[in-house]
Write a structure and sequence with these properties.
The complex is a heterodimer of chains A (97) and B (479).
Chain A: H1 7-17, H2 23-44, E1 64-65, H3 75-79, E2 85-86, E3 89-93
Antiparallel strand pairs in A: 2-3
Chain B: E1 4-15, E2 52-53, H1 54-66, E3 70-71, E4 74-75, E5 78-81, E6 91-94, E7 101-109, E8 115-127, E9 131-135, E10 140-144, E11 151-157, H2 164-181, E12 193-203, E13 213-218, H3 221-240, E14 249-253, E15 258-261, E16 274-275, E17 282-283, H4 286-294, H5 300-311, H6 315-322, H7 325-338, H8 341-358, H9 370-381, H10 387-400, H11 404-410, H12 419-432, H13 434-441, H14 448-458, H15 465-478
The chains are: A mainly alpha (97), B alpha+beta (479).
The structure holds zinc ion.
The site of zinc ion has 8 residues of chain B, from loops.
């Protein structure tokens, strides 16, 4: 494996992804990420000079909606997805910035 | 002590005036009960798919054209990843690599008449987040997703501003352009226009920029001016005492008058943008671009010129009237009916302004019809009602948009032009007020005003004060 993921990197990625990994999981993740980067390096060997970057896999563009209200109040159903609800709202742990 | 220059760039978020959200058919109407304007898309449910609102693209294009931007004819959306409870998908759909508009500029005019060009780096489309309410009782936060997915454009300026005055002139310029386009109502206080201020200081003459901070939570022109003064001082103090400015996001507390750092190191600002896989690219053809261009309205500076030429009203009046697109519309529609631009302008400049102030209304909230104002002007010109009654009737039009012709009829407000009847009243007033008559005869011509006032009272304000004045004068001079 050409790409070695450092302990600092895996720690940082964990913070970004809000994941707490055990030491064993960290080692596995380091290995997985390293091989992903190796794969990208392989792709980078290809000469793509003059090739338009592709932004989407389907040859489709300009899929639009008209600006017309189509959804009614469906709060009761939507709130069924809430872990907890209060006063018609999703209830979450106290968050202040 | 060295002299410092303030360098300011703005990121302005504008909520677009679409009826529906950017990626779903939920209403954007303000003030609904929490979560009544939500669906699986705007609450980030797995498996739901966004579909782009075409009107959002057209508004963004229109603002870009009006601010002299290059339109990116092949553009797309990207994902900005971060965790926060007001962001249900754990990413915001935005534009990083190919924003819809780039490289624009607007001209601002300062108090002293100097003009300055402010560059626009880019304008991109994105979705708004939900609203978090902190519950005092349960030690929890409540999330309302009604605003989640409301379309925004973010207008990013170049760091071309040097003072709070320039910042305010720039914001006002953007507000006018966007309101004229009908793309947003741009209310700072209500959050439909929000400005983040990027500020750094450097010694005058220095070519390098200093380290900048970003300030959020500025919701009035005054708060922006205070935040700029406060942050400038804070940065200069740091530099003078040998410390360095840290590049960070700070929240301005307007009541306390200082800013504080918002994010801890735990929340690294690494958004890991990547192309949004759920949305297909947007290709803007020349035809589409031309079509949007051809629909651009007459902007304020164009209106100003035309008003001076076509309606021959003073520049000052034209400026005040065109300060709001809505008021300019009322003006033009009323003139189209009665063809009396000076009188229409006068009603708007004097009585309308007075009543707006008294009732704390914005120009955008005026709700009387041009038809009723035109009718009122005709009533005065035809001598049916006098000036004082007209003011009284106008207040009714202003508040309840009543029909002045009906109102004048119903309340018996027609001017009294019965000369013989008036004469009897006036003779009595003259004989009841010998002191005023004597004053008048002794050369105090102003004394006549008191007599006219008495006569207006006697006729319950329905007589024509000009006619009364003339009649009393004739009667006194005859004696
Ligand atoms: Zn929705």
């Amino acid at each position: 494996m050409a790409n070695i993921i450092s302990d600092e990197t895996i720690e940082y990625v964990g913070i970004l992804a809000k994941l707490e990994l055990s030491d064993k999981e960290k080692e596995q993740a380091k290995k997985d990420m390293g091989s992903m980067l190796d794969y990208i390096d392989k792709l980078n060997e290809l000469d793509t000079k003059g090739v338009e970057p592709m932004s989407h896999v389907f040859p489709v563009h300009n899929v639009f909606r008209e600006d017309i209200v189509t959804n009614n109040d469906d709060r009761d159903n939507i709130l069924k997805n809430a872990p907890e609800e209060k006063d018609g709202s999703f209830m979450v742990p106290k968050t202040v910035d | 002590m060295a002299k410092y220059e303030t360098v300011i760039g703005l990121e302005v978020h504008v909520e677009l005036a679409t009826k529906t959200k950017i990626f779903c058919g939920c209403s954007t109407a303000f003030g609904g009960a929490p979560n009544t304007h939500t669906c699986p898309v705007c609450t980030g449910m797995p498996g739901s798919l966004p579909v782009l609102n075409k009107q959002v693209v057209e508004y963004a294009m229109a603002v870009g054209i009006a601010t002299n931007c290059k339109i990116t004819q092949n553009c797309k959306f990207d994902r900005k990843n971060y965790f926060y409870p007001d962001n249900p998908q754990n990413y915001q759909i935005s534009q990083l690599y190919l924003p819809i508009c780039r490289d624009g500029r607007v001209e601002i005019e300062l108090e002293d008449g100097t003009k300055k060009t402010i560059g626009i780096h880019e304008i991109h489309m994105e979705e708004d987040a939900g609203k978090l309410i902190h519950d005092e009782w349960d030690d929890c936060s409540l999330v309302d997703f009604n605003r989640s997915g409301v379309p925004l454009i973010e207008i990013v300026s170049e760091p071309d501003m040097r003072s709070a005055e320039e910042v305010n002139a720039y914001l006002d310029k953007l507000r006018l352009i966007i309101q004229y386009l009908g793309a947003s109502d741009c209310k700072l206080q209500e959050g439909s226009m929000r400005a983040d201020v990027n500020l750094s200081v450097r010694e005058v003459g220095s070519k390098e920029f200093g380290t900048r901070t970003e300030m959020k939570n500025l919701n009035s022109f005054k708060a922006i001016a205070r935040a700029i003064a406060g942050e400038r001082e804070r940065q200069i103090d740091l530099i003078e005492s040998g410390e360095s400015v840290i590049q960070e996001t700070r929240r301005w507390d307007d009541t306390k008058g200082y800013s504080y750092a918002m994010r801890s190191k735990e929340d690294a600002q690494d958004y890991r943008y990547f192309p949004e896989p759920d949305l297909v690219p947007i290709i803007i053809s020349d035809e589409w671009l031309d079509e949007v261009k051809s629909r651009q309205p007459e902007f304020r500076y164009e209106k100003l010129e035309r008003y001076k030429k076509e309606y021959e009203i003073p520049e000052y009046d034209a400026k005040i009237i065109t300060e709001s697109k809505h008021m300019a519309d009322i003006f033009e529609d009323t003139v189209a009916i009665c063809n009396k631009p000076k009188k229409v302008s006068n009603w708007l400049m004097v009585e309308t302004m007075r009543l707006m102030k008294a009732h704390e209304l914005e120009a955008e909230e005026l709700s009387f019809s041009p038809e009723n104002l035109a009718k009122l002007i005709e009533l005065v010109d035809a001598g049916t009602i006098n000036g004082n009654v007209a003011k009284e009737v106008f207040e009714k039009i202003f508040l309840d948009n009543i029909d002045p012709v009906d109102y004048v009829d119903k309340h018996g407000l027609k001017m009294d032009n019965d000369v013989d009847g008036l004469k009897v009243i006036l003779e009595k007033i003259i004989s009841d007020n010998p002191q005023s008559v004597e004053d008048y005869n002794n050369g105090k011509k102003k004394a006549i005003g008191f007599l006219v006032g008495q006569a207006m009272k006697e006729t319950k304000g329905k007589a024509n004060p000009g006619v009364i004045n003339k009649m009393i004068q004739e009667m006194l001079d005859k004696n």
